[in-house]
Design brief:
Number of helices: 17
Order of helices and strands: HHHHHHHHHHHHHHHHH
Strand content: under 5%
Distance between the termini: 23 Å
Number of strands: 0
Helix content: over 70%
Amino acid sequence: MDPSMKVIFDLFHQPQGELTEEGIQRRNKEGKDAAESRELGQQCLNDGDYDAAVKHFRRAAEQRDADDPTHLLDLADALTFGDELPAAYKNFERALRIKESAEPHLGLGVICKRYGRYRDAIEHLQRAIDLEPEQPQNHFKLAETLAELGEKKRALQAIQYAIALKPDESFYHFWTAELLARTGRVDEALESYRAAIELSPGDDHLYLRAAVAFWRAKKVIEAVKAIRLASDLDPDKLIYRGFLAIMLDRDGRPAEAEPEKKLANKMDAYDRDLLNRIIKEIDG
């Protein structure tokens, strides 16, 4: 299961309990109006003080102009961030009743997907697209939801809109490549991996995934070259040496594989498990 947004947030932000003196002051301060409460909420999020951020966003929502859904949306986003999904859903709906816009539909779509209500999610995400067709993230969220539902053809159509709107986003090309690879369209996937790598040439993971696709396409020379490039970018990732050893062995080059095997023997359990999954993938 993917980690929640809050888990990821906690990983990269200062944990609660280690706040600076200024952070503690922000936690305990009360905003004089909706704008100040909102600013305090955003600052507390930056501090990693999630509970205080929600408190300030709640206050901003109470202080807001009755015709302005902005602070309800801030609160709903923060609650989604913390996996408080029923409360988040309620506030997105409140914001939607005040004014229809893409943002609450997007939020409701994300929550519906997390509950497995894919048809409801698609309905909200399509409405978000209708309201803001120029936003690539709306199209990506729809593509992601369709793919999880198993409607891969429609997902590929949706992601193409995201790419057309933001062609320099490496992740959209990578996501497309992964979906194409999963459907057996490996040659097409390689074109998308190429686009992703050209936009983000320092990302070693992209070369790993391209190596898998090259091998599946029976392009051994390119597969070996790709995994060597991945290893050059991050020599500490021994999984790359392990995958290289397997490819060299299978290509009838045991002498070249031997030094790679010796290095790969130092892999930890996590990398061994990941390599086993890669082997299953290339064996089809």
